[in-house]
Every structure is written in C-alpha cells, then in structure tokens.
Amino acid sequence: MEALKFEGTPEQEQQLNAVFKHYENVPGRLMPVLQDAQEIYGYLPIEVQSKIADALKISLSEVYGVATFYSQFNLNPKGKHRISVCLGTACYVKGADKVLEEIEGQLGIKAGECTPDRKFSIDTCRCVGACGLAPVIMIDEKVYGKVDPKQIAGILKEYKEEGAE
User: Fold this and answer.
1) Which residue from 25, 45, 72, 104 has the highest number of Cβ atoms inside 10 Å of its Cβ?
2) In angstroms, what is the C-alpha Rg of the chain?
C-alpha cells in the first residue's frame, strides 16, 4: 500500500516550534520532543522527524533510530477508529489470525497501516486480558469477544455507516 501523504497544518507547525523553544536548553530533550510531536501530529512522519533533527541539530538517523526503537512511537498515521487484534496465545489458538486476515481483506490494508480515508487503522497486540472471550478484537475502547471471521463485515459496517461525518 502506498504511504499516506503527510498533511500538517500551520497550527501544528506553530505548536511544534513552541515545543522546540520549550526544550531549547534541556539535556536529553529528544524523547520529550518526540513525545510532544507525536501528541501534536498523532504520529511521527519523516517530515516531522526531519524538522526535529534540524531543530535539535542532530542527524535524521538519530531521530529515526529513537523513534523506531521505542514502541510508543508511531511512524504511520492512526485511523479515527483503531482496530486492535489480539494475537496472544489464547486468541491465536482460537483463530485470531483468520480474524486478522478478514479485517485486512475487508479494509484493504495490512496490520500497521491506515486506510486512505484515515477512518480505520489496524494493529495487533499480545493480550487484552480477555482470554476467556478469545478470539478478541478491540475497536477504539469496545471489546468484541468470540469473534468469528464471518462477523467482521457486520462489525465494521457499524463504523463505516456511522458517519457520513
């Protein structure tokens, strides 16, 4: 799938510049700057990483290295609705891989990606603490248990129709 085009706003750029100013003389400022930048943009596209590298006078590879090392940082945008598929042992044994395949097929994206309209993104996780309901998916904060791949179209339909927003 082709990467989504970065769409930063002037307001976001102003906020990022304020972050740079705030951490101007702070030792070890890369982590808090990355955290604040992700809060502003929702993720850390290469364009934002480049701005951070320039502002902190460090290499882009250093920024990228930190952003990819820590799992708290996202390099891809997240959708309005975040789908998380549990691939923990209980869920996997009960067919979570087939559920994931069905979600990917329905949305036309893979885990870690976002739909072009930015309505959905898919991620996987190792456990949501609902093993008795395996296989489990979460959409935003809502938990769906004992999910069968045949149910996916109906579940997604709720979110697709919710908004001609």
Assistant:
1) 45
2) 18
Residues 6+ apart with CB under 8 A from 127: 86, 88, 91
pTM over 0.90: no
Q: What are phi and psi of 149, to 5 degrees?
A: -50, -30
d(CA 112, CA 1): 11
pLDDT tens for each residue of the chain, 165 residues long: 456 688 889 999 999 999 999 999 999 999 999 999 999 998 999 999 999 999 999 999 999 999 999 988 999 888 999 999 999 999 999 999 999 999 999 999 999 999 999 999 999 999 989 999 999 999 999 999 999 999 999 999 999 987 644
Name the token pair of 66.
């930190």
Cα separation, 153 vs 165, whole angstroms: 20
With contact defined as beta carbons under 8 Å apart, do 66 and 30 qualify?
yes
State residue 156 phi and psi, 5-degree precision: -65, -30
- Pairing state between β 142-144 and 81-86: unpaired
Instruction: Please count the residues of the chain.
Output: 165
